[in-house]
Amino acid sequence: MPINQPPDESDLRLDRLLDQARWPEPSEEQLARLKNQWQALSSRRRRRSFVLRAAALAVASSLCVATGWLAWLGAPSADNRTEVRPAEVPQVAIQQHGEAPKLAAEGPAAQEDIARELPQRAIGRLASHDPTPYEQVLLAGSFPARAAEKRVKESRRPQLAHRSPRRPTPKDLAARVARSKQNGDHFAATGGRWGKRSVRKFAALSSVVGEIAEKLRDSDRCEPLLWEAVHQQNGLARLGAAELLAVVATERSLPVLTELASSPDTHAVAIAALARLAPTAEIAQLAVRERNPDLRRVLCAALAARGTEQSVGLYLNLVARPELRRDALDALADVQPQPAELLMAFLRSSDVRARLAAAQALGRVDDPAIVEALAQSLSENRHRQETLVALLLNRSPRAAAIVSAARSDLYLAANVRSAEIELQFHHLTDFSKR
Amino acid sequence: MRGGSNLDRLVETHLPAALRFARRLTGNADAAEDLVGEALLRVAERFATFRGDADFRTWLFRILINVFRDRLRHGSPATLSIEDEQLDPIDRHARTPAEAMAVSELSDRIAAEVARLPPRQREVLVLVTFEELTVSETSTVLGVTEQNVHSTLSAARARLKERLAPYLGFVER
Question: What ipTM was reported for this prediction?
Answer without folding.
Answer: 0.72
